[in-house]
Amino acid sequence: MKGWKKVVESMDSEHQHMLRGGSVSNFFLRDSLTLCHPIFIGGCYGLMISIALLVPLTHSNLGDGDGYYQIARDWFFQMLIIVSITSFLGAFSVLISMIARRPPARLLYLRKILFALPFIGLAVLSVSIIDNSDMILIDRLGWFLYILPGPLWIHLSYAPRWRIIDRIDRDIEPFEGMKMTIYGGEGDDVPESDSELEEVIGSI
User: Fold this and answer.
1) pLDDT tens readout for residues 77-91
2) Looking at the domain assignment, is residue 143 inside a domain?
3) Which residues neighbour 61 within 8 Å (Cβ) at sequence distance 6 or greater?
């Protein structure tokens, strides 16, 4: 077991739940904290959604008479742009989390919405690409829905969690300077659904 995991295991259940995160966070945090830096996680998300764009992009370009070399070239440059954007947003989220020093938000309900948004965005973009639509607003809406979920999850949940875990791993007081170490408390009388919503709204 890694050093930071031993420290987390010694915390109370609320802090353990907060720092362990969900299945996605656990998947990335099982490796080196350097490799799972929010910059790289943002880039990984950008790469994944870029791969999904291959199908509509190939279909559209073949219909226009482009060869596979041109399709690969267009996709490669599109991928570089997307990965650069998502990596930059990951770095921005780390910077904000260091300044704000807030705990990671619990996205129990928002996670379901975030999971669906990329598929909606991909559908909108696919229609826009294949039909060569000149409707700029629809095209921009598709890109927004397609790119937003990953960076938003990193900003609200993953980057603050990674910052605290990184401090634990470097044997630095993880909660130093934080006004609160966790959203909510055991003595709160607010219903769970309301408190979760307030946490997300407050984080945004």
Assistant:
1) 999 999 999 999 999
2) yes
3) 70, 71, 74
